[in-house]
Amino acid sequence: MLVKLSPSLRNLQLPLRLTLKGGPTLDLGPHPRVTLEIQDLSLLEELTEPSLDKLGEAYISRRMEIHGPIMDVIEVADMLSKGLLGDDPGPAPQRQAHDKHTDAAAVSYHYDLSNEFYGLWLDPEMVYSCAYFHSVNDSLAQAQQQKLDHLCRKLRLQPGERLLDVGCGWGGLARHAARHYGVEVYGITLSQAQLELARQKNAEAGLDQHIQLELQDYRDLTGQEQFDKVVSVGMFEHVGHANLDAYFKVLHDQVKPGGLVMNHGITSKHTDGRQVGRGAGDFIGRYVFPHGELPHLAMAVSSMSEQGLEVVDVESLRLHYARTLECWSDNLERQLERARTLIDDKALRIWRIYLAGCAYGFRRNWMNIHQILAVKPHADGSHDLPWTRADLYR
């Protein structure tokens, strides 16, 4: 059987080999690094318009198999897609409805997959957010400890203060803040699996008297000005553009006058918050983060300002996150056999594509991630922040 491909596909000159299962082989360029083994012949026609979500779906539905290092697979898939479709910036964003039930279901879908699965590729503290590398030679565990400390130093945490941790995950930041800075932490999450393991880890560390974690939506936080500092890491991506003002109002209302609020989250490259183009954002929304929306930095700063928070420091960690994701992807690739015993085949295929694809996307500036530090000024407009950043680096 001959492999019939469009002239435009044949002319791309990619390091890619196409094979039909048990049939012929065609190299699209010299020295192929990646092989796509076509299981479904109808996929050949679809390769004339190979959007990234279409390629990803073909892999997770087993219409094709991939062979080669996963980072090479992502790069060649992008080259194939861009070569035939151009550099599509993606459609204008459609605002999504976010209510408590929808957000809880989305968080459960993503985070309640398997604590043991996440443990295969995260650091020992299971910090599922961007690490902070002092050099490319830092280990993942070292870089995550540096990130936790970087957050605590930016918040200028002091012994005896009360810290609100919105989206506390497996509790890594709460434990670091309680252990090293002597604060009392109240953390909330929508993931039952995360909550149970975080509480267990807190007890094992002897910190459960200083950390209270609850299954709670940020919209259900009660009271006013209860906390000296507020931190939110990897949370506002789930909030939705339409709810940003309400979200930052909650953070504003929970912190005392003069207190600091840190928001650490992924941000859109495009000012209107549109998804990554050529279907990459569609794939993530459909299979990884349902109902996720990435605000642009300007949108986040505007919303925080409108709610009475004064932004005092912004730091981009884009290349740090690219490196973090590369570490996560490498860890998972080394543990594929074990991972197959913890989650089903479709989920594992999704996560292989997701981690490597996001590493590739952050490396190439498809999206960004920012730490945004804000203060709630006193009534007279004053605050107590140092005049310089020098204290962060002592």
TrEMBL record:
NCBIfam families: cyclopro_CfaB (NF040703). Keywords: Lipid metabolism, Methyltransferase, S-adenosyl-L-methionine, Transferase. The keyword Translocase does not apply. Belongs to the CFA/CMAS family. Pfam families: CMAS (PF02353), DUF7884 (PF25371). One of its GO terms (biological process) is methylation. Residues 14-78 form the DUF7884 domain. It comes from the Bacteria. InterPro entries: CFA/CMAS, CfaB-like, CMAS, DUF7884, SAM-dependent_MTases_sf. The keyword Cytoplasm does not apply. The active site is at C358. Coiled coil: none annotated. This is Methyltransferase domain-containing protein. It comes from Pseudomonas jilinensis. GO terms for molecular function: methyltransferase activity.
